[in-house]
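Record 1 of the preview.
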Amino acid sequence: MKKHRQLNLQTVFIILTIVFNSCNTDSTSNNRGTAVSGCKEIVDLGMLITEDLPERIIGKAAMDHMGWEKNNEFDVRHWEFPTGDADTIKGSDTYFTLFNHAGTHVDAPNHMNAGGGIDSYPLDAFIGPVKVFDVSAYSEEHPVPKTVFENKVSAGDIVIAFVNYNPAQPRHENPGFSTHLSEEAAEFLAGLPVRAFGTDAASAGASHPAFLPRKIPIYEQLINVDKLLGKDNMLFIGVPINIQNADGSFVRPVVMVY
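->
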């Protein structure tokens, strides 16, 4: 196991304890996103999951092309439970039918037939220092070169590339194209190796073969990445739902800014 992955569960617990003790937010404040002590702010990178999210993010045309015929479905089951007297307890439970690659999610190696599922990642693959790069000036024809990251990224860092992705408008169209990492840049980051790679784009595209076979998670469709630009001393936490053999999982990542 590579050096940067040698965090045991006790170490992870200590990190999380320090984070949440130092970054508590005041729920009664008008500025609920500002930490009262320790870190300066907590930034939410996860989008809201809705029933129409696949079509809204990917676009109907792209979904039809890929054979993705379904949106999400929230099947709410209401129930009543008599208590034996005049009162009745009422509530609900829900079956969720979700497309796991539309919305903020993390890819597993088996998404590209490159190994195990989400449950094959070690827990510490989802937690670590993060560095964010604005690569929105690059184009599909001129992908991001490795010089953007050279001497700025260390082994064990989580790297997020801000491409300023625009979803399909209107929904029946294909999504807008955005830049991506060059093969050389992806191989450079994977070779360090970084702990994880993330982007606000719909997909990391051709970068998958560099990261996933090396068990480096890829986060896609992140939101609010622009709020992290120009900031240092940040901790990323993006632990997914631990689904057996899943090729991807929804996640609500947060970044603690110190």
